[in-house]
Write a structure and sequence with these properties.
Elements (H helix, E strand, L loop, with lengths): L5 E6 L17 E2 L2 E2 H10 L4 E8 L1 H4 L14 E5 L4 H11 L6 E6 L7 H12 L3 E7 L4 E4 L5 E5 L5 E10 H14 L6 H7 L4 E5 L11 H10 L4
Parallel strand pairs: 1-4, 1-6, 4-5, 7-11
Antiparallel strand pairs: 2-3, 6-10, 7-10, 8-9
Length: 230
């Protein structure tokens, strides 16, 4: 029997104002279902996932949308989002059961995360190394001054685009967030927090399908990518 030792924290606590519309971005339909539901169902399809915690804005946490309960409710919890992303992740961590010794943190704005990417992240954590999904930068990067003129070309050889999920041994992640709270460390993601604390994190191959929905045009892009298999 496969141990259900993986806990997932899906961060869906933002307002998503850049995507436009009155409805929360993570609740809007894309590729045939609400955006958040894509991620929840993908993670729940894994036999090693014991709990998925959805971190929602406070006004929705007490009354989640009914479609969310299409999932396995025995493996679903809803937590309240914090003032920052770090606070939201910490809140989700607190709600995970003790059995969840591997934690995956995922952005609800990446609805098309695939099984192979999740596998690579989990396998790295099982081997003892925290990991994030990412893709190498392929575009030529230009450094530009305040006047709009190019000041240099950035070497892209060692540059990667961070994605999610990001995976960590639970104790390391809990300790990192405790230190961040005490020392008021603000970071854009958990990998950056580990970087500031000097804790190594490995990059594993992500997916071009795992597009992050940021603005209104991204909904059409996700719809187009939904039928594409890598």
């Amino acid at each position: 029997m496969i141990a259900r030792d993986v806990g997932v924290v899906i961060v869906a606590g933002g307002s998503g104002t850049r995507a436009g519309g009155q409805e929360l971005k993570q609740f809007r339909w894309v590729a045939g279902k609400p955006m958040l539901l894509h991620s929840v169902q993908t993670f729940m399809a894994r036999p090693d996932v014991g709990m998925v915690v959805c971190v929602l804005p406070q006004r929705y946490a007490g009354d989640p949308p009914p479609w969310l309960f299409q999932c396995d409710v025995d493996r679903l919890l809803v937590s309240i989002g914090g003032r920052t992303r770090s606070e939201s992740v910490a809140n989700g961590l607190d709600d995970l059961p003790d059995e969840a010794q591997i934690v995956l943190v995922h952005d609800a704005a990446r609805p098309l995360v695939d099984e192979a990417t999740i596998d690579r992240v989990v396998q790295s954590v099982r081997s003892g190394t925290s990991a994030i999904a990412a893709l190498p930068v392929v575009d030529t990067l230009k450094e530009v001054g305040e006047d709009g003129f190019i000041t240099g070309t950035v070497d892209r050889e060692k540059l990667w685009r961070a994605q999610t999920p990001q995976g960590f041994p639970r104790k390391l992640l809990v300790d990192a967030h405790r230190i961040a709270s005490i020392e008021h460390i603000a970071t854009t993601d958990d990998a950056a927090l580990f970087e500031q604390l000097g804790i190594p994190v490995k990059v594993v191959r992500g997916s071009e399908r795992a597009l992050k929905v940021t603005d209104a045009m991204d909904f059409a892009r996700v719809d187009a990518l939904f039928g594409v298999r890598e």
